[in-house]
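Summary for the steering committee. One of the milestones for this cycle was to obtain a three-dimensional model of the protein with zinc ion bound, which we needed before selecting residues for the alanine scan. The sequence and ligand used are listed below.
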Amino acid sequence: MRALTVVPRQAHSLEVTDVDDVEPGPDELLVDAVAVGVCGTDREIATGDYGWAPPGRDRLVIGHESLGEVRYAPDGSDFAAGDLVVGVVRRPDPVPCGACAHGQFDMCRNGRYTERGIKQIDGYASERWTVETQYAVRLDRGLRDVGVLMEPTTVVAKAWDQVQRVGERAWFEPRTALVTGAGPIGLLAALLGVQRGLEVHVLDRVTDGPKPQLVADLDATYHHDGLEDAVAAAQPDIVIEATGVGALVFGAIAATASFGITCLTGVSPAGRRLTIDAGQLNRELVLENDAVVGSVNANLDHYRAAADALARADHDWLARLVTRRVPLERYAEAFERRDDDVKVVLTFDGGAP
Ligand SMILES: [Zn+2]
Ligand SMILES: [Zn+2]
């Protein structure tokens, strides 16, 4: 069968190759791929900056934002042929650390976790894939054309879960949230904020393309005149930072109201320097009881929360987040960045929506 594979840490090695057919183990589903989302992590792997091949192999099947249709499910499992499913990205480390032992592999302490399509386990960008039943999550069949948004939605479901947990250390009735960045993570974070009943503001740089209207259609407020303007309008109790841009990260931390919570979800390259007034930042954090929390990945609770959030969302709005659908053989186009892209996905023959 065909798969999109890469030699990790080797630029220009991404290509569609023939790989062995997969056979499901006793507790595994065999799944026909429908679509795979492409994100910044995939682009970093494609440029040779990230990723690990499975032990003893050169090539890794890429793809962690999965969506597929069950071809075969073992008897007695909760799944049946035809079910729409997403495979979880991360697996617990083999030790396991305390967090992994408690099902919180998203919080792994020793870094020895593995990840489908990223770290030592083949991903989901192959025509068929297998997944352990306990790491498969079923989606409403009506989400066939948008279910590929599940994995980025799990990331923001975790971010909101973190905000809630940090907030509950004292009286917590937040009113407003500011999301910095209107990419897939930012827009999905805004969606979940609106679903929580918050007044949501979103900051990005662009003034055209689909982003301003996508924000407006959530009944959220779009800002493009910089952080100061957005903060003045939003006076946010919560900031979800989804750009990883240093100036925005520190600006966001300083921007929150008293008892403000900033959740950082954007990964930035190392080596970018910024001059900050450390004394002022410290004063603000202390005197306002502010909290800053980093958040990455997601566990099964967040997958379930994300499935609920997608099922509750306006279907047409979700469909507009997928701005390009590219067939597997034209993968190179999917890895190009274009103006007006929100989420680009690879599609598979077996899985035309
Ligand atoms: Zn991703
Ligand atoms: Zn662990």
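Key point for the committee: The two ends are 20 Å apart (CA to CA).
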